[in-house]
Amino acid sequence: MAALPVSSAKFVLGLDLGTTSIKVVLLDSQSRTVVNSSSFPTNSEINNEKYEHAREQDPARIIGAVDQCMDVLPTEKLRDVICIGVSGQMHGVIFWKTKTGCEWSSSDAGHTFRPRDVSQMITWQDGRCGSDFLSSLPKPESHLNVSTGYGCASIFWYTRHRPEFLWEFSVSGTIQDYVVSMLCGLEGCIMTAQNAASWGYFNTACSQWNTDV
Questions:
Q1: Segment 195-205, tens digit of pLDDT
Q2: Which CATH number does the domain housing residue 148 bear?
Q3: Helix H segments across the chain?
């Protein structure tokens, strides 16, 4: 009996960490057609009773929704993934500790991680930075004005109102930066220019942060 042909197909995994749901797709790397996809709601909203205008999400629930999406995809195709593209909600910020930002585990289904020494995620919808607070901030050298919910604005807010909160962490980024850092075992955060611009205080013309603020 002739042996069955071995598939040479390779795939690209796309992962989007949205405000309310997680979406994943598998693309055939040659035809660029979608061969599988899945989506799950995160149900990750946190009720912050202390700050009325706070908008926060639980990163453990977000990663849990990622796992749900991945469980739907065929294991045999996931073995042939050659690269991963990650996108997600912009502007927001999450903090974590270097080297202890997550805890990995292994099973027959594969490898998964759970957030460990991380903060809640402050989303782009956070409204704690009012107009008076924003007007007190240094003027950014950027084509974008700073708004409430932007990563840098939220960091300024915590610096002024809850500095002890920041003492626990050593790295910050968007939720997609956090996921990439954990997947790649990075000690820091590598942020794209698009995400950096969405935080405020980033000059896209020279690809540099405004450090003199």
A1: 999 999 999 99
A2: 3.30.420.40
A3: 59-72, 75-78, 131-135, 151-161, 163-166, 175-184, 193-199
